[in-house]
Write a structure and sequence with these properties.
The complex is a heterodimer of chains A (217) and B (398). With 217 residues, chain A is α/β, with parallel strands linked by helices. In chain A, 39% of the residues lie in helices and 24% in strands. Chain A has a 9-stranded mixed β-sheet with strand order 4-3-2-5-6-1-7-8-9, sandwiched between helices. Helices cover 34% and strands 28% of the residues of chain B. Chain B has 13 helices and 19 strands. The chains are: A alpha/beta (217), B alpha/beta (398). Chains A and B meet through helix 4, helix 5 and helix 7 of A and helix 3 of B.
Chain lengths: 217, 398
């Protein structure tokens, strides 16, 4: 599967029907990388689902536009959002808790059941969609790690069997080593990002990017 | 006088339990991932609130407000009724916010959770049911602590003559924990699913009860829009003129034909009751449009009956093409070799051979005119759905 990211494509791209753990420092890099991959797929006629637990769907669209990977034209057509954020935000800000959009909403990051049902429902009419899950770190904040592991394992297996490719975001340095190791173990591939001298570097042993290489988005 | 039996709000489940659950008892809805037991909890709450019962509802996985908003969105239940329910807030403290609810956990640990629920039960003497949704969240406090919370709820509801209802999703949790929890509750109702791609077929069955109960597996449908319990939909399809409309009208206890001018939509709908399990029959008469059929298949159908005209082999190709779509959705199906009363009708085994139907698929000769064989096909199919192909063992294993 071609991602539109030169350094990854040069090494062969991401295999279809796989789960990829994307680990990176706090900041917009992970989202930008996922958006670039998603937009490549959408523009090639593919389908996508964006699950968000820490940003509004409308903000994702805005940031995509700002990064010149406008995806808003696909929304509610070949791109669907699962919004696991606005419920929480609404309560925090004391405002209307839902955006006026057609996204599937999930009432918060510890409602794992609603979340899995939301994802399943969204995918029902979408064959071979690609999924961005942003981010596992929020789930880990609100649930016991064991339950999150099971969630990743069970959902991951389901998505894989159905031919879906999933990119799961995870914040670097936010979780203990054991948690990160387990997540790595539960996924097929790991892409790691780091920032160095203002540059974003990428490495993925399993995808063939063996050395830290500058990521140009 | 207060009732001694509490209804679960689901007629079929009540029937299986011999009327409902005993007042003051405890009931566990244990689901596999992908099925939300909260829907069963809310269905039960709504049903009992409608009978003027008082209910408490504890959540620590979402804001109490979200419970309400979500239920309004589903449009399954009356808003006013659910607002009579006292919501206990175990979520606000998790996200570091003050709660607006009367009963709220201030510091999230097992002791406080138990204490808040206990106080709420004691202070609401007329309360009849205490609900606890997404109980798996308590594992965050540790397994032992989670068991402790369950124990505390069961005891304090029992001593206050309230019924404790807990929803728990088994995210592949440790067997020891699940066994222990199941042991503690008087009733255990399992919510399971069999998944074929993203099409989920959901079932519930009673696993444990202090009284005799009916061992049966009941299909239900659940989506973001709620649950549709105990009414599986059966699609009756087949080539033009195979007799679908007559078939439905012949066997249904009530049936209607819906027509729209032009040939776009024409639909036959019937309802039958077979050994306590109602089934909706949908027919696709007129010029067959696959899109239309596929839509029903994807959304709701629990089974398909394909009618073939056993006097007209030229329609077999069309029928086979339809079967191909049915198989793709992995839905149980049976075949009605219709028009058996007409001279020249081909024997079923001949049809099986000509259409290359596997041996395990039932083919039954029917006559939609005399009614002969029609109900047998439906029975065979319902058996396939409930007990046969998708047997109980597989469900339990899944």
């Amino acid at each position: 599967m071609k991602t539109g990211i030169d350094v990854i494509d040069a090494a062969g791209g991401i295999p279809e029907s796989s789960n990829v753990l994307l680990i990176g420092p706090p900041g917009p890099e992970k989202m930008l990388l996922s958006l670039r991959i998603l937009s490549t797929l959408l523009n090639a006629g593919g389908k996508g689902v964006y699950v968000t637990t820490d940003v509004l769907p409308s903000d994702i669209e805005k940031r995509a536009k700002a990064a010149l990977v406008d995806i808003s034209g696909f929304t509610n057509k070949s791109l669907k959002f699962v919004d696991c954020y606005s419920w929480t935000l609404g309560e925090l800000a004391g405002v209307k808790s839902k955006e006026e959009r057609n996204d599937v909403t999930v009432p918060g990051p510890s409602a794992l059941n609603d979340l899995s049902i939301g994802i399943t429902q969204t995918l029902r009419d979408m064959e071979n969609a690609n999924i961005v899950f942003q981010s596992l770190s929020t789930l880990l904040l609100y649930n016991s790690p064991e339950i999150v592991f099971r969630f990743v394992q069970i959902m991951g297996a389901r998505l894989k069997v159905s031919g879906m490719t999933t990119i799961l975001h995870c914040e670097a340095q936010m979780h203990d080593e054991k948690t990160v190791t387990t997540l790595k173990h539960l996924t097929d591939h790991v892409i790691e990002l780091k920032t160095e001298d203002g540059k974003t570097m990428v490495q993925s042993m399993t995808l063939g990017v063996k050395e830290w290489t500058e990521l140009i988005l | 006088m207060a009732e001694l039996i509490v209804s679960t709000g689901i007629a079929k489940l009540d029937e299986m339990l011999g009327g409902g659950v005993r007042k003051g008892a405890s009931i566990l809805f244990l689901s596999s991932p992908g099925i939300d037991p909260s829907i069963f909890l809310l269905q039960m709450a709504h049903h009992n609130l409608a009978k003027q019962s008082k209910c408490l509802y504890y959540t620590e996985t979402r804001f109490p407000k979200a419970v309400m908003e979500k239920t309004h969105e589903m449009k399954l239940w009356s808003k006013n009724l659910l607002e009579n329910m006292e919501l206990l807030d175990g979520f606000s403290a998790k996200v570091g916010l003050p709660s607006r609810m009367k009963y709220a956990v201030k510091k999230m640990d097992a002791k406080n959770v138990s204490a808040v629920i206990d106080v709420a039960i004691k202070e609401n003497k007329d309360n009849e049911i205490i609900f606890f949704e997404n109980f798996e969240s308590t594992l965050g406090y540790g397994e032992k602590q989670a068991i402790g919370i369950a124990n505390s709820i069961i005891l304090s509801s029992m001593s206050n003559q309230a019924t404790a209802v807990v929803g728990l999703t088994n995210w592949d949790l440790s067997e020891g924990f699940i066994d222990k929890i199941k042991e503690m509750f008087d009733y255990v109702v399992r919510l399971s699913s069999i998944e074929e791609k993203f099409l989920m077929r959901n079932y519930f069955f009673v696993e444990k009860s202090p009284q005799r109960f009916m061992h049966m597996v009941v299909p239900f449908r659940q989506g973001m829009d709620g649950i549709g319990v105990y009414v599986p939909k059966i699609l009756i399809t087949g080539p033009f003129h195979s007799g679908k409309s007559s078939f439905i009208h012949k066997i249904s206890t009530r049936a209607v034909s819906v027509d729209r001018i032009g040939t776009t939509i024409a639909l036959d709908h019937g309802y039958i009751d077979y050994s306590g399990l109602g089934a909706d029959l949908f027919g696709t008469p007129g010029q067959e449009r696959f899109e239309f059929m596929l839509d029903i298949l994807k959304k709701d159908a629990f089974g398909v009956i394909l009618l073939v005209d056993s006097t007209d082999t030229t329609t077999f190709d069309r029928a086979k093409e339809m079967l191909r779509h049915v198989r793709k959705e992995a839905i149980p199906y049976a075949i009605a070799a219709n028009k058996k009363d007409v001279p020249g009708a081909m024997p079923v085994e001949e049809i099986r051979k000509r259409m290359q139907i596997p041996d395990e698929v039932p083919i039954i000769a029917t006559s939609a005119v005399t009614g002969e064989g029609c109900l047998d096909v439906v029975k065979k199919l319902v058996d396939l759905v409930i007990e046969g192909k998708i047997g109980r063992k597989k469900i339990e294993a899944g």
